[in-house]
Write a structure and sequence with these properties.
Helix content: 25-40%
Shape: elongated
Distance between the termini: 49 Å
Number of helices: 7
Length: 241
């Protein structure tokens, strides 16, 4: 099954962009996934192809018009999830990326200017308002590229090793353990002895311990969720408090 990505944007020339090279690019050539960039301006009805207007109530900037965006969404209506890139959205996480990657594809609506007319989300409740992080970009296109990259690399056949998509940061609620490679000694710094021991059980234990330690120190928000989930009783189990 081909993973189909449709991007609604004012700048279709930005796609596939960096997704046209390396592993994603080769997968695109093989047909493992597809990318269609749709020009939002094509759905404007006036001779100037207007897609935005001034904010109601006053203020700086321009707001994307709901009628134009509604027609653009209607043109690609299907069973795929629809994401709207906006800093007002919920930051997307790896578990949602994995859900999307396991499906038939995704439609991404890229914001610009001061964002979307709120009535768009009232009329299309299936649209998920999503952000990449707590940052503000010039537009949703660069965030869309990052999200597509995260999805595409999980599509079967895109990455060489099956475990490449599993033993990574966020997959089990932790940051990934530190990585090392040759040379064994670099400027007086050596690869940890346990990684050179050949003892796979000890290596696995070291990696788990380092993942937990680094998550606790670097991302206390992740650590709190991870440790809280770990302390929860198994489904159906009873606790004797």
């Amino acid at each position: 099954m081909t993973f189909a990505a449709t991007v609604l944007t004012l700048y279709p020339e930005m796609f596939p962009g960096p997704l046209g090279v390396s592993l994603a690019g080769r997968a695109l050539e093989r047909g493992d996934w597809s990318c269609e960039a749709v020009q939002i301006r094509d759905f404007a009805t006036d001779r100037h192809r207007t897609v935005d207007d001034t904010p109601a109530g006053g203020g700086a900037g321009m707001v994307l018009k709901p009628d134009v965006l509604g027609r653009a969404l209607d043109s690609v209506s299907d069973e795929r999830p629809v994401l709207a890139m906006t800093p007002r959205g919920k930051p997307i996480a790896q578990d949602r990326i994995r859900e999307i990657a396991a499906g038939p594809g995704v439609t991404i609506l890229c914001g610009r200017f001061e964002g979307f007319d709120e009535r768009l989300f009232e009329a299309y409740p299936q649209v998920e308002e999503v952000s990449l992080a707590d940052i503000v970009l010039s537009g949703g296109e660069t965030a869309a590229i990052a999200i597509l990259d995260a999805c595409i690399r999980l599509v079967p056949g895109v990455m060489g090793a099956a475990l490449s998509g599993v033993e990574e940061s966020f997959e089990d609620g932790l940051l990934e353990y530190p990585q090392y490679t040759r040379p064994q000694d670099w400027e007086g710094r050596t690869i940890p002895e346990v990684l050179r021991s050949g003892d796979h059980a000890k290596i696995a234990a070291w990696r788990k311990a380092r993942a937990e330690e680094d998550t606790r120190l670097r991302r206390p928000d992740l650590w709190e969720r991870y440790s809280g989930a770990r302390d929860q009783p198994a489904s159906g189990a009873r606790r004797n408090d």
